[in-house]
Specification:
Low-confidence stretches: none
Number of helices: 3
Mean pLDDT: 87
Length: about 70
Amino acid sequence: MSKRAEEILRGMPREDLRVREDYRDDGLRVKLATHYLIGYLGNETPENNRAVYSGKEIAELLESVCNGIE
């Protein structure tokens, strides 16, 4: 995984990355994590500065969100 993708994932709330047993709870988790990514990747912040992310980095982020991280 790229260092930029790892940085973003470290900034996410751990609860948004922990897989849930109930599919409804897990669906909500994926939704919250996706909204976090949309907000992070779409906003200009001092540390983000409207950075351009490669398709590979975005795919890594989405894969981590979908599969969860222990």
